[in-house]
Amino acid sequence: MNQEYILFDRDTQAIFWNLNVDAIQRMLDYDYMIGRNPSVVAIVAPGSQRNFEKFFYGDREILIPIYDNLKETSIMYPKASVLLNFAFLRSAYDVTKEALLHTNIKVIVITAEGVPERFARELSIQAKKLNKWIIGPASVGGIKPYAFKIANTGGAVENIKLARLFKEGSVGIVTRSGGLLNELFNIVSKYTDGVAEGIAIGGDKFPGTDFVDHLIRFEKNPKIKFSIILGEVGGKSEYKVIEAIKNKLITKPIIGWCIGTVSDYFGGSIQFGHARAKADKASESAIQKNKAMKEAGILVPNSFNQLPYLVKELYESLIGNTTDDLSTNIID
Known about the structure:
Order of helices and strands: EHEEEHEHEHEEEHEHEHEHEHH
Low-confidence stretches: 323-332
Helix content: 25-40%
Radius of gyration: 20 Å
Number of strands: 13
Strand content: 15-25%
Number of helices: 10
Number of domains: 2
CATH architecture of the largest domain: 3-Layer(aba) Sandwich
Distance between the termini: 29 Å
Mean pLDDT: 91
CATH class of the largest domain: Alpha Beta
CATH superfamily of the largest domain: Succinyl-CoA synthetase domains
Strand order of the largest sheet: 3-4-2-1-5-6-7
CATH topology of the largest domain: Rossmann fold
Largest sheet: 7 strands, mixed
């Protein structure tokens, strides 16, 4: 990964913390689909009495070794640059804090929800000082098509095929919600040449990286022609993007939408699912954030239902009307 904007490539190796058999198998199924070597090289499962776990890579059985601690695993696999932290809430902070100390680990994905805000802030600050990346907490992860898939991102193999996530496209996506990330995968696959990279930053109040961090990465990636951000009521993530646009850090087109416009019809401060999905100020409401994004030059649909048509219109204006030729053969 010699370019600073690239987090994952076809040679990316990952260490998986916790023995989550289903998530690991989905990664291996994706690896086989795109013809790359298995991306998960080791599992850390403290207290496990087993030395390995059996998985399938295509129709072939493979063994992935299990270790008791991250230090030993990092030494054994110095090329592993990603830690998939599936530790439970009570240990997610300690696992991440240790991972930041290992020089080979460049990206840490935290799936646990509800990491205390003080800890989340500390981890984010420390990671940026070390030039490392945290995705999450409360994140499903992300995907770089034809390169690397994090755990359950994109769902089962059938949905991976339907959304054509086995080939690299030209659209970058950043969301808070993992479920809505999958929805955007389907929209982008239908109206463009596909996804270049999709990241769910997570629903907790203080994510390790924000919209703007990934959009600036996308700005440096010549393969990405435009980006989509899908936020939600509460927080200031969209305003950070607006500031970056004003400072010319982001110049590529962006389609943006903030979920939760209905919240203005309720009295008081209403929380919608995620810990951060709560507007404590008028400026944090979905309606106000959508208005601010539109005024900054971000393409904002009138409703979520209009978003697919906006995606199609922008793609065709940048690339040309080629959506009729997007029926790429599905990999069996």
